Amino acid sequence: MYKFNEETIAVGYIKQLLHSFNLPKCKLFKTTDEAIDYYKNLSSVALIKNYKNNSSYLVWINNGKIEKEKSYSYNHEYLNITGKMNLFNGLYDSRTHVYLGNYLRFLRDYNNINLMSLYNCYADITFTDTKYKYISIPVKYNQTYTIAFTGTNYDYYLGFEDDLKSIQKYFAAEKNKNSIIRKTSEFNNPFKLSTKAVKNKYFMEENYKLILRVPLNNNNKIVVLEGDYRGSTYKNIVDIAENKKDINTIIDSKSIYIQANYDDVNDVNLNNYINNLYLLKNNYKNYSEPFSPRLIEYLIENTITSDEKISKNVIDAKYKLFTRYGSDQQKKDVKSGLFKLNDKINIEYRLRFLDCFKKANKPILDDTDLLGYVDKDIEYCLDDETRGN
Questions:
Q1: pLDDT tens per residue across span 93-150
Q2: What secondary structure letter does DSSP report for 272?
Q3: What is the pTM of this model?
Q4: Which residues make beta-bridge pairs with 136?
Q5: Which one, of 56, 79, 82, 51, lies nearest residue 69 by Cα?
Protein backbone atom coordinates (compact mmCIF):
# COMPACT_ATOMS: atom_id res chain seq x y z
CA MET A 1 0.00 0.00 0.00
CA TYR A 2 1.24 3.49 -0.78
CA LYS A 3 1.36 6.65 1.33
CA PHE A 4 2.30 10.26 0.76
CA ASN A 5 5.89 11.33 1.49
CA GLU A 6 7.33 7.82 1.23
CA GLU A 7 10.38 6.88 -0.82
CA THR A 8 10.13 3.50 -2.55
CA ILE A 9 11.26 1.85 -5.79
CA ALA A 10 7.79 2.33 -7.29
CA VAL A 11 7.80 6.02 -6.35
CA GLY A 12 11.21 6.39 -7.99
CA TYR A 13 9.83 4.88 -11.19
CA ILE A 14 6.81 7.20 -11.18
CA LYS A 15 9.02 10.27 -10.75
CA GLN A 16 11.37 9.17 -13.55
CA LEU A 17 8.37 8.53 -15.82
CA LEU A 18 7.02 12.03 -15.21
CA HIS A 19 10.51 13.49 -15.62
CA SER A 20 10.99 11.84 -19.02
CA PHE A 21 7.54 12.45 -20.56
CA ASN A 22 6.79 15.60 -22.58
CA LEU A 23 3.39 16.49 -21.15
CA PRO A 24 1.40 19.16 -23.02
CA LYS A 25 0.51 22.17 -20.87
CA CYS A 26 -2.29 23.31 -23.19
CA LYS A 27 -5.89 22.11 -23.04
CA LEU A 28 -7.02 19.24 -25.28
CA PHE A 29 -10.17 19.38 -27.44
CA LYS A 30 -11.81 17.03 -29.94
CA THR A 31 -12.39 19.72 -32.60
CA THR A 32 -11.15 23.21 -33.41
CA ASP A 33 -14.73 24.52 -33.09
CA GLU A 34 -14.82 23.22 -29.52
CA ALA A 35 -11.54 25.01 -28.74
CA ILE A 36 -12.69 28.29 -30.31
CA ASP A 37 -16.00 28.14 -28.44
CA TYR A 38 -14.17 27.58 -25.14
CA TYR A 39 -11.70 30.46 -25.49
CA LYS A 40 -14.10 32.76 -27.41
CA ASN A 41 -12.27 36.09 -27.91
CA LEU A 42 -9.13 35.08 -26.03
CA SER A 43 -5.74 34.01 -27.36
CA SER A 44 -4.37 30.57 -26.58
CA VAL A 45 -2.77 27.38 -27.88
CA ALA A 46 -4.86 24.19 -27.92
CA LEU A 47 -4.22 20.55 -28.75
CA ILE A 48 -6.78 18.93 -31.06
CA LYS A 49 -7.20 15.15 -31.05
CA ASN A 50 -9.50 14.07 -33.88
CA TYR A 51 -10.48 10.46 -33.22
CA LYS A 52 -12.34 10.04 -36.51
CA ASN A 53 -9.27 10.43 -38.71
CA ASN A 54 -6.73 9.73 -35.94
CA SER A 55 -4.96 13.06 -36.38
CA SER A 56 -3.45 15.38 -33.78
CA TYR A 57 -2.38 18.98 -34.19
CA LEU A 58 -1.69 22.15 -32.26
CA VAL A 59 -3.65 25.30 -33.06
CA TRP A 60 -2.95 28.92 -32.16
CA ILE A 61 -6.24 30.74 -31.49
CA ASN A 62 -6.59 34.51 -31.52
CA ASN A 63 -9.89 36.39 -31.22
CA GLY A 64 -11.97 33.37 -32.20
CA LYS A 65 -9.88 32.51 -35.26
CA ILE A 66 -7.19 29.94 -36.02
CA GLU A 67 -3.95 31.73 -36.88
CA LYS A 68 -1.62 28.73 -37.11
CA GLU A 69 -1.66 24.94 -37.13
CA LYS A 70 1.10 22.43 -36.50
CA SER A 71 1.02 18.63 -36.37
CA TYR A 72 1.51 17.08 -32.94
CA SER A 73 3.52 13.91 -32.22
CA TYR A 74 3.00 12.02 -28.99
CA ASN A 75 5.69 12.61 -26.33
CA HIS A 76 7.63 15.04 -28.53
CA GLU A 77 8.99 18.26 -27.10
CA TYR A 78 7.41 21.55 -28.19
CA LEU A 79 8.95 24.76 -26.86
CA ASN A 80 6.73 26.45 -24.26
CA ILE A 81 3.93 23.95 -24.94
CA THR A 82 5.16 20.74 -23.30
CA GLY A 83 7.03 20.25 -20.06
CA LYS A 84 8.64 17.63 -17.82
CA MET A 85 8.49 17.33 -14.06
CA ASN A 86 11.64 18.50 -12.31
CA LEU A 87 13.17 16.13 -9.75
CA PHE A 88 14.03 17.67 -6.37
CA ASN A 89 13.76 14.63 -4.09
CA GLY A 90 12.82 10.96 -4.05
CA LEU A 91 9.60 11.36 -2.06
CA TYR A 92 6.05 10.87 -3.28
CA ASP A 93 5.10 14.42 -2.32
CA SER A 94 2.08 16.57 -3.18
CA ARG A 95 3.80 18.09 -6.21
CA THR A 96 4.49 14.64 -7.69
CA HIS A 97 0.91 13.56 -7.02
CA VAL A 98 -0.65 16.58 -8.72
CA TYR A 99 1.64 16.13 -11.73
CA LEU A 100 0.73 12.43 -11.95
CA GLY A 101 -2.94 13.42 -12.05
CA ASN A 102 -2.32 15.67 -15.05
CA TYR A 103 -0.42 12.86 -16.76
CA LEU A 104 -3.30 10.41 -16.19
CA ARG A 105 -5.81 12.95 -17.51
CA PHE A 106 -3.75 13.27 -20.68
CA LEU A 107 -3.74 9.47 -21.10
CA ARG A 108 -7.52 9.53 -20.71
CA ASP A 109 -8.19 12.41 -23.10
CA TYR A 110 -5.56 11.61 -25.72
CA ASN A 111 -5.26 7.80 -25.69
CA ASN A 112 -8.75 7.01 -24.41
CA ILE A 113 -7.25 4.97 -21.54
CA ASN A 114 -9.12 6.02 -18.41
CA LEU A 115 -7.26 5.18 -15.20
CA MET A 116 -8.79 7.98 -13.11
CA SER A 117 -10.73 5.55 -10.91
CA LEU A 118 -7.33 4.40 -9.59
CA TYR A 119 -6.19 7.94 -8.67
CA ASN A 120 -7.22 9.91 -5.58
CA CYS A 121 -7.36 13.62 -6.37
CA TYR A 122 -6.72 14.33 -2.68
CA ALA A 123 -3.14 15.67 -2.67
CA ASP A 124 -2.18 15.91 1.02
CA ILE A 125 -2.29 19.75 0.97
CA THR A 126 -3.53 20.97 4.35
CA PHE A 127 -3.59 24.25 6.28
CA THR A 128 -4.50 24.56 9.96
CA ASP A 129 -5.40 27.21 12.52
CA THR A 130 -6.42 26.86 16.17
CA LYS A 131 -9.90 25.59 15.31
CA TYR A 132 -10.03 24.12 11.81
CA LYS A 133 -8.18 22.04 9.27
CA TYR A 134 -8.44 23.29 5.66
CA ILE A 135 -7.89 20.65 2.96
CA SER A 136 -7.05 21.87 -0.55
CA ILE A 137 -7.81 19.43 -3.39
CA PRO A 138 -6.87 20.31 -7.01
CA VAL A 139 -9.80 19.82 -9.41
CA LYS A 140 -10.52 20.64 -13.06
CA TYR A 141 -13.19 22.53 -14.97
CA ASN A 142 -16.22 20.75 -16.42
CA GLN A 143 -15.72 17.52 -14.49
CA THR A 144 -17.77 15.34 -12.16
CA TYR A 145 -16.26 14.12 -8.89
CA THR A 146 -17.18 11.33 -6.49
CA ILE A 147 -16.27 12.30 -2.92
CA ALA A 148 -16.08 9.88 0.02
CA PHE A 149 -15.23 11.24 3.43
CA THR A 150 -14.96 9.89 6.99
CA GLY A 151 -15.82 12.19 9.85
CA THR A 152 -18.60 14.56 10.82
CA ASN A 153 -20.00 17.74 9.32
CA TYR A 154 -17.77 19.79 7.06
CA ASP A 155 -17.97 22.84 4.80
CA TYR A 156 -16.58 23.26 1.31
CA TYR A 157 -16.38 25.61 -1.64
CA LEU A 158 -14.71 25.76 -5.07
CA GLY A 159 -12.15 28.52 -5.55
CA PHE A 160 -8.59 29.63 -6.22
CA GLU A 161 -7.28 30.48 -2.75
CA ASP A 162 -3.94 28.80 -2.08
CA ASP A 163 -2.80 29.97 1.36
CA LEU A 164 -4.24 29.88 4.87
CA LYS A 165 -4.95 33.61 5.18
CA SER A 166 -6.88 33.74 1.87
CA ILE A 167 -8.90 30.64 2.76
CA GLN A 168 -9.80 31.97 6.21
CA LYS A 169 -10.83 35.28 4.66
CA TYR A 170 -13.07 33.52 2.12
CA PHE A 171 -14.91 31.52 4.79
CA ALA A 172 -15.35 34.64 6.95
CA ALA A 173 -16.70 36.95 4.20
CA GLU A 174 -20.44 37.53 4.34
CA LYS A 175 -20.69 37.72 0.53
CA ASN A 176 -19.41 34.13 0.19
CA LYS A 177 -21.96 32.46 2.46
CA ASN A 178 -24.14 31.25 -0.41
CA SER A 179 -21.21 29.54 -2.11
CA ILE A 180 -20.09 27.66 1.03
CA ILE A 181 -21.87 24.32 1.36
CA ARG A 182 -22.37 22.36 4.60
CA LYS A 183 -22.23 18.60 4.13
CA THR A 184 -22.73 15.54 6.30
CA SER A 185 -21.25 12.46 4.67
CA GLU A 186 -20.46 8.82 5.27
CA PHE A 187 -17.62 7.08 3.48
CA ASN A 188 -19.92 4.34 2.17
CA ASN A 189 -22.32 6.91 0.77
CA PRO A 190 -20.19 9.22 -1.43
CA PHE A 191 -21.68 12.31 -3.06
CA LYS A 192 -21.28 13.85 -6.51
CA LEU A 193 -19.81 17.28 -7.22
CA SER A 194 -19.78 18.90 -10.66
CA THR A 195 -17.52 21.78 -11.73
CA LYS A 196 -17.75 24.36 -14.50
CA ALA A 197 -15.27 26.68 -16.17
CA VAL A 198 -15.08 29.97 -14.26
CA LYS A 199 -15.83 32.98 -16.45
CA ASN A 200 -12.83 35.26 -17.06
CA LYS A 201 -10.53 32.68 -15.43
CA TYR A 202 -10.05 30.23 -18.30
CA PHE A 203 -6.26 30.23 -17.84
CA MET A 204 -6.43 29.62 -14.09
CA GLU A 205 -7.68 26.03 -14.20
CA GLU A 206 -4.38 24.74 -12.75
CA ASN A 207 -5.13 26.78 -9.60
CA TYR A 208 -8.73 25.60 -9.19
CA LYS A 209 -9.37 23.89 -5.84
CA LEU A 210 -12.00 22.16 -3.78
CA ILE A 211 -11.47 23.58 -0.28
CA LEU A 212 -12.78 21.56 2.69
CA ARG A 213 -13.02 22.89 6.24
CA VAL A 214 -13.20 20.29 9.04
CA PRO A 215 -12.68 20.36 12.82
CA LEU A 216 -9.00 20.36 13.74
CA ASN A 217 -9.13 17.10 15.70
CA ASN A 218 -10.73 15.08 12.88
CA ASN A 219 -8.39 12.54 11.29
CA ASN A 220 -10.37 12.14 8.11
CA LYS A 221 -9.87 9.74 5.25
CA ILE A 222 -10.73 11.42 1.95
CA VAL A 223 -11.20 9.94 -1.51
CA VAL A 224 -11.97 12.22 -4.46
CA LEU A 225 -12.34 10.41 -7.80
CA GLU A 226 -12.68 12.24 -11.12
CA GLY A 227 -15.82 10.67 -12.54
CA ASP A 228 -19.17 9.50 -11.17
CA TYR A 229 -18.65 6.23 -9.30
CA ARG A 230 -21.50 6.48 -6.81
CA GLY A 231 -23.16 3.16 -6.05
CA SER A 232 -20.91 1.26 -8.43
CA THR A 233 -19.81 -1.07 -5.63
CA TYR A 234 -23.19 -2.42 -4.71
CA LYS A 235 -25.73 -1.77 -7.45
CA ASN A 236 -26.49 -3.32 -10.81
CA ILE A 237 -24.53 -1.56 -13.52
CA VAL A 238 -25.95 -2.49 -16.88
CA ASP A 239 -28.45 -4.42 -18.93
CA ILE A 240 -26.74 -5.86 -21.99
CA ALA A 241 -29.82 -7.07 -23.88
CA GLU A 242 -29.76 -6.79 -27.67
CA ASN A 243 -32.00 -3.73 -27.79
CA LYS A 244 -29.88 -1.53 -25.48
CA LYS A 245 -28.45 1.59 -27.11
CA ASP A 246 -25.76 2.39 -24.55
CA ILE A 247 -23.32 -0.46 -25.19
CA ASN A 248 -20.48 1.94 -26.11
CA THR A 249 -20.99 3.77 -22.83
CA ILE A 250 -20.80 0.46 -21.01
CA ILE A 251 -17.50 -0.49 -22.61
CA ASP A 252 -15.90 2.87 -21.77
CA SER A 253 -17.33 3.08 -18.25
CA LYS A 254 -15.67 2.47 -14.92
CA SER A 255 -17.46 -0.82 -14.43
CA ILE A 256 -16.17 -4.36 -14.47
CA TYR A 257 -18.50 -7.29 -14.20
CA ILE A 258 -17.86 -10.22 -11.87
CA GLN A 259 -19.34 -13.57 -10.85
CA ALA A 260 -21.43 -13.98 -13.98
CA ASN A 261 -23.50 -17.13 -14.44
CA TYR A 262 -24.72 -17.54 -17.98
CA ASP A 263 -25.24 -19.78 -20.97
CA ASP A 264 -25.74 -16.93 -23.39
CA VAL A 265 -24.84 -13.25 -23.14
CA ASN A 266 -28.51 -12.31 -23.52
CA ASP A 267 -29.49 -14.45 -20.54
CA VAL A 268 -27.28 -13.01 -17.81
CA ASN A 269 -28.30 -12.64 -14.19
CA LEU A 270 -28.03 -8.87 -13.88
CA ASN A 271 -27.68 -9.07 -10.10
CA ASN A 272 -24.16 -10.35 -10.69
CA TYR A 273 -22.95 -7.22 -12.46
CA ILE A 274 -20.95 -5.58 -9.70
CA ASN A 275 -17.92 -3.33 -9.58
CA ASN A 276 -15.48 -2.82 -6.71
CA LEU A 277 -13.12 0.13 -6.65
CA TYR A 278 -10.20 -0.24 -4.26
CA LEU A 279 -10.12 3.40 -3.16
CA LEU A 280 -13.84 3.41 -2.32
CA LYS A 281 -13.79 -0.02 -0.74
CA ASN A 282 -11.00 0.22 1.83
CA ASN A 283 -12.54 2.60 4.33
CA TYR A 284 -11.01 0.84 7.34
CA LYS A 285 -7.70 2.68 6.98
CA ASN A 286 -7.14 5.89 8.89
CA TYR A 287 -5.19 7.64 6.15
CA SER A 288 -5.86 8.73 2.57
CA GLU A 289 -4.05 6.66 -0.03
CA PRO A 290 -2.80 8.54 -3.11
CA PHE A 291 -3.73 5.81 -5.59
CA SER A 292 -4.77 2.19 -5.93
CA PRO A 293 -1.92 -0.38 -5.92
CA ARG A 294 -3.10 -1.61 -9.31
CA LEU A 295 -2.20 1.71 -10.91
CA ILE A 296 1.47 0.74 -10.64
CA GLU A 297 0.87 -2.13 -13.09
CA TYR A 298 -0.23 0.39 -15.71
CA LEU A 299 2.58 2.83 -15.04
CA ILE A 300 5.33 0.18 -15.26
CA GLU A 301 3.80 -1.06 -18.53
CA ASN A 302 2.80 -4.43 -17.15
CA THR A 303 -0.62 -4.00 -18.69
CA ILE A 304 -1.69 -4.37 -22.31
CA THR A 305 -4.11 -1.66 -23.42
CA SER A 306 -5.40 -0.49 -26.79
CA ASP A 307 -2.32 1.75 -26.92
CA GLU A 308 0.04 -1.22 -27.36
CA LYS A 309 1.34 -2.37 -30.72
CA ILE A 310 0.84 -5.97 -29.57
CA SER A 311 -2.85 -5.46 -28.94
CA LYS A 312 -3.53 -8.06 -31.65
CA ASN A 313 -2.40 -10.59 -29.06
CA VAL A 314 -5.40 -9.57 -26.97
CA ILE A 315 -7.71 -10.21 -29.93
CA ASP A 316 -6.11 -13.63 -30.43
CA ALA A 317 -6.68 -14.38 -26.76
CA LYS A 318 -10.36 -13.55 -27.15
CA TYR A 319 -10.68 -15.99 -30.03
CA LYS A 320 -8.97 -18.68 -27.95
CA LEU A 321 -11.34 -18.15 -25.06
CA PHE A 322 -14.41 -18.38 -27.27
CA THR A 323 -13.04 -21.48 -29.01
CA ARG A 324 -12.90 -23.15 -25.63
CA TYR A 325 -15.77 -21.58 -23.68
CA GLY A 326 -18.09 -20.03 -26.25
CA SER A 327 -21.55 -21.19 -27.27
CA ASP A 328 -21.81 -23.87 -29.96
CA GLN A 329 -22.59 -21.20 -32.56
CA GLN A 330 -19.63 -19.07 -31.46
CA LYS A 331 -17.28 -22.06 -31.74
CA LYS A 332 -18.55 -22.75 -35.26
CA ASP A 333 -18.12 -19.10 -36.23
CA VAL A 334 -14.54 -19.04 -34.95
CA LYS A 335 -13.65 -22.12 -37.00
CA SER A 336 -15.33 -20.78 -40.15
CA GLY A 337 -13.82 -17.30 -39.77
CA LEU A 338 -17.24 -15.67 -39.33
CA PHE A 339 -16.75 -14.80 -35.66
CA LYS A 340 -16.55 -11.03 -35.21
CA LEU A 341 -15.70 -9.05 -32.09
CA ASN A 342 -18.22 -6.37 -31.19
CA ASP A 343 -19.21 -4.44 -28.08
CA LYS A 344 -21.56 -7.13 -26.81
CA ILE A 345 -18.92 -9.82 -27.33
CA ASN A 346 -16.30 -7.71 -25.52
CA ILE A 347 -18.55 -7.58 -22.46
CA GLU A 348 -18.95 -11.34 -22.50
CA TYR A 349 -15.19 -11.67 -22.93
CA ARG A 350 -14.60 -9.89 -19.62
CA LEU A 351 -17.10 -12.16 -17.91
CA ARG A 352 -15.42 -15.29 -19.27
CA PHE A 353 -12.04 -14.10 -18.05
CA LEU A 354 -13.41 -13.75 -14.56
CA ASP A 355 -15.08 -17.14 -14.74
CA CYS A 356 -11.64 -18.58 -15.53
CA PHE A 357 -10.27 -17.02 -12.37
CA LYS A 358 -13.08 -18.52 -10.35
CA LYS A 359 -12.39 -21.99 -11.77
CA ALA A 360 -8.67 -21.59 -11.14
CA ASN A 361 -9.41 -20.34 -7.59
CA LYS A 362 -7.20 -17.29 -8.15
CA PRO A 363 -8.37 -14.13 -6.37
CA ILE A 364 -7.78 -10.85 -8.20
CA LEU A 365 -6.91 -8.38 -5.45
CA ASP A 366 -10.42 -8.79 -4.01
CA ASP A 367 -11.87 -8.22 -7.50
CA THR A 368 -11.02 -4.50 -7.37
CA ASP A 369 -10.01 -2.09 -10.11
CA LEU A 370 -10.37 -4.35 -13.14
CA LEU A 371 -10.76 -1.94 -16.04
CA GLY A 372 -11.00 -4.44 -18.91
CA TYR A 373 -7.35 -4.36 -19.98
CA VAL A 374 -4.93 -7.28 -19.79
CA ASP A 375 -2.65 -7.15 -16.75
CA LYS A 376 -0.43 -9.75 -15.11
CA ASP A 377 -3.37 -11.48 -13.41
CA ILE A 378 -5.13 -11.90 -16.73
CA GLU A 379 -1.91 -13.25 -18.26
CA TYR A 380 -1.74 -15.95 -15.59
CA CYS A 381 -5.33 -16.83 -16.33
CA LEU A 382 -4.65 -17.09 -20.06
CA ASP A 383 -1.64 -19.29 -19.43
CA ASP A 384 -3.71 -21.80 -17.51
CA GLU A 385 -6.94 -21.67 -19.44
CA THR A 386 -5.89 -21.42 -23.09
CA ARG A 387 -2.73 -23.51 -23.19
CA GLY A 388 -2.86 -25.96 -26.05
CA ASN A 389 -5.76 -24.31 -27.91
A1: 999 999 999 999 999 899 878 889 899 999 999 999 999 999 999 999 999 999 988 8
A2: G
A3: 0.77
A4: 125, 211
A5: 56
Residue type, 287: Y
- Cα–Cα distance, 347 to 300 (Å, whole number): 26
For residues 282 and 42, give the distance between their C-alpha atoms in angstroms, rounded to a whole number.
45
Burial class (CB in 10 A: 0-12, 13-18, 19+), 32: middle
User: For every residue of 166-204, which 3-state class applies, written as one string?
Assistant: HHHHHHHCHHHHHHCEEECCECCECEEEECCCCCCCHHH
Cα gap 304→255, rounded to integer Å: 18
Q: Decide: helix, strand or coil at residue 321.
A: helix
Q: Are 223 and 147 in contact (CB under 8 A)?
A: yes
Q: What is the spatial distance between Cα 119 and Cα 41, in angstroms, rounded to a whole number?
A: 35
Alpha-helical segments (H) within 221-362: 247-252, 278-281, 295-299, 311-325, 328-336, 343-360
CB 312 within 8 A of CB 264: no
- Cα separation of the two ends of the chain: 37
